[in-house]
Amino acid sequence: MDPGILSSLPRRQARAVTVGGVQIGGGAPVSVQSMTNTDTCDVEATVQQVRWLAAAGADLVRVAVPTAEALEAFAQVKRGSPVPLIADIHFDYRLAVGALERGADKVRVNPGNLGGPEKLKAVAEAAASHGAALRVGVNAGSLERDILQKAGGPTAQALVDSALRSLELLDEMDFRQVVASIKSAHVPTMIEANVLLAGRTDAPLHLGVTEAGLPGKGTIKSAVGIGALLAQGLGDTIRVSLTGDPVQEVVAARDILRSLGLRAGPDLVSCPTCARAHIVLEPLARRVEAALESVQAPITVAVMGCEVNGPGEAKWADVGVAAGRGSALLFRHGTVVRRVSEDEVEEALLSEIRALVEEGAGGSSS
């Protein structure tokens, strides 16, 4: 499939920050993050969820450390984690220092509730001594009081001012292992703030729409906000924040990257159907989508309802079917290879998909 213009758009050149074995910025692929929602003190459950997230494709996982008890549990979770682990800290800078002492690859701190510049310095000094990174994470709901009062609300500029205050302090310390993030539940504010911040720092940007909501509408909000920035070449790591099983966040994040040509993997193209369709297409498309979940090859598969939307409109697909009355056309790269009966459609298409994967000959860049 023609990758189009998005995958070849120039990306903002951010400095490289290393988190465990994962590079963020510096031209590295956009990484996917998620966060556990188990009780961190339940080490077994938290480790299991970290492993599920890693299996789903998370490159990094964040774990909340709200108490001293959670801090001790974090050390055990870190030992069982297959991916770099980030400690999420609010209010108590000593928990951040403690997490770094216990092996955190990165610590997320919120300048709006950490307690001031001296405490941020203490965390940065600990990160430097342990070879770890920091994320300065600004949220619209927790801005510093003076910035909020001056701006009259959590405006995009107020969010940027908060981030820059911390980033400039860390620059003065010559601490460069910093990732910056500005998040808001209001998508236009999130987009505007990140565009403004990108022009003021070379720190890698972590993108996300905070508290986006349930899967469905929350996924749409995240895709719009994150996708709008990625399409401008902005963003080095992303998290989709959804209410529910965090594995869904990883799936959504990977789909966002794939839709922009920023992550390899299969792409399903299926038509919306109309009166020209002579078979019920949705069940077939869902079964094909399920079969593609275990495929990592960058192939594009088309499931089309008629000859109009078949090889013509899906000509860039590696393989596909165009259903007709009682039969369907099977095609590769827009060329019809054979006609199959309606009851043979699914197996014929899946057989072609398996053959493409085995041959390694998809040729798609989606």
Q: Would you kindly provide a written description of the structure presented here, covering whatever features stand out?
A:
Strand 13 (319-323) and strand 14 (327-332) form a beta hairpin. It is built from 12 helices and 15 strands. The longest helix has 17 residues, at 156-172. It has 366 residues and is an alpha/beta fold. Helix 5 (145-151) packs antiparallel against helix 6 (156-172) and helix 8 (217-230) crosses helix 9.
Beta-strand share of residues: 15-25%
CATH architecture verdict of the largest domain: Alpha-Beta Barrel
The first-to-last residue Cα distance is 7 Å
Main sheet record: 8 strands, parallel, barrel
Question: What are the low-pLDDT stretches, counting only 5+ consecutive residues below 50?
Answer: 1-6, 362-366
Q: What share of the residues lie within helices?
A: 25-40%
